[in-house]
Amino acid sequence: MKHIKEFSKRANSYDENTIIQKKVATHLLSKVKYNPKKILDLGCGTGDLNLKIDWEYEKFIGVDSAYGMCKKHPKNDFVEVININFEDKKFQQDMLCDTPFDLIISSSALQWAKNIEELIEFTSKISSNIAFAIFTCNTFADIYKLSSLETFLPDAKELVEITKKYFDIVYEIKIYRLNFEDNISKFRYIKKTGVSGGERKLTVRQTKKLIETYPHKYLEFEVLFIHNKK
How far is Cα 138 from Cα 60, in angstroms, rounded to an integer? Predict the structure, then answer.
């Protein structure tokens, strides 16, 4: 998967260029109104969620496909990091043998799932509590529109309906904007965060056209927050 290589390659610059992702992680944790002791983090990255947890826990398992990210994630007697795709069947079977978890959490990662309903169904088998933040299809909407490319990101309403099949949830959609001095800076930001690593990239000609014509001083991100009713 191309995005995995991209994230791993950009691991050293990722933390310096993920302003929005850090805000998303902080907001997601604010939705957790209790102190779960056993936590599974899907798409743990370099450990931003783990570092933000301010309560004592007994076990934290982080999983991420990008080796470079896993290498930077904090580790200790209470924190285990697994370098594997969270849709890997063997990994999921191992987690089924380690149930139950007090919380399954994921920030800015589930949009990469190949089969997100199957993944959410899996999480329902190992925990009754979730907290997810997922970038959705209105992220970079103007870029996709101007370039005539279809977004790979999921639709927020569809995600809500899928999740309701397995959990009793509440949800919130937030829009974030990040301002830049010029268009070149915008596209450098996208590249450095690794989010340009989708299966379909812009051509050099398309990129040049966007740099010349993109009309806003900002990039816009749409994030769906889903968590349990409690």
Answer: 32
